[in-house]
């Protein structure tokens, strides 16, 4: 039985594709993922798959080609840019006699290297263990005792496997409890920020778009930033000053195509910063020829985590890499220019073009951010009936009440709160008094 090697940094990459020519951008991103994990790329093979082989994903002919390429290049690791079932991974390792890692395992490995905070390490370990739980199969020699039938050869049977599963589940439960405790603490901190009345802004974008560099430039912080995929994993929050007043700015993990669901679930604390923000700064690598595709993939992930409806300000970063580009602010009603020709970045989407590294356009961004946040506040007087005590309490909790009087019919409140908070309260069963202040909700017959 094949002994799974602990070595493996000289990698052969396999890019499966279904018909037609393989996607060059996907190939380059996969190679960059491998390099980000610390592997050197020996060679890259494409594999057309019209009907996946249930045992090995790729066909027998391609399998022989992969084995020969491994021998020729000296590769001791095989990376597959596709999800592999536990059986497929085991069979490939046995036939190729090398360690095999699929896309999910590769991204988990990168996350394990990048996590710095205690919370981030817990989240990565939890995701790894959940992924590993599906791979406790008889592919390693420490389980060779799983045999029986003859005298003297009867081993513990499934005991070793069952023990591994039990220990793994115990560790998963421990990690989940610790993360739940951290989440409670983070929620309390988030509530304190809400009560402070400061608007919440989150940086989102495709990995390596320059979010952490921009975060440092705006906040004066020293968050880790590097020109590689997934440089930042841990949610970092800072208070920054703007012309309109202080705001809370959060840096988040970068997105990537086909982000494993284990990671989306594990990094809920980071993603919550985006989901509960009043405004998203969608950071885009302006010099990336595939920036429109990247933007679409970020939009898809935002929709998946429930943040698709949060207002966005598009920030095109890295203009220092575009010859002749200058910092500028394109307002939402501006026409389409040569740098933004499509629906994602065209008319109706406010855009700021900057270089966070060189500090170009940061004042334009601060002014645009201030204007957007100032526009999204609601200052009004509302009448609450006596039965709306819960809504009144929530408004006080948000520190949104500037004046209050009471009579026999209820309360009259002078309020000042963000449009996002008003929308959340108005969507509740007792939020009728706020709905006339929000045209999109006032016109909704289901509320």
TrEMBL record:
Gene3D superfamilies: 6.10.250.2860, GTPase HflX, N-terminal domain, P-loop containing nucleotide triphosphate hydrolases. GO terms for molecular function: GTP binding; GTPase activity; metal ion binding; ribosome binding. Its cofactor is Mg(2+). The keyword Nucleotide-binding applies. GTP binds at residues 205-212, 230-234, 251-254, 317-320, 355-357. Belongs to the TRAFAC class OBG-HflX-like GTPase superfamily. HflX GTPase family. This is GTPase HflX. It comes from Luteimonas viscosa. The gene is hflX.
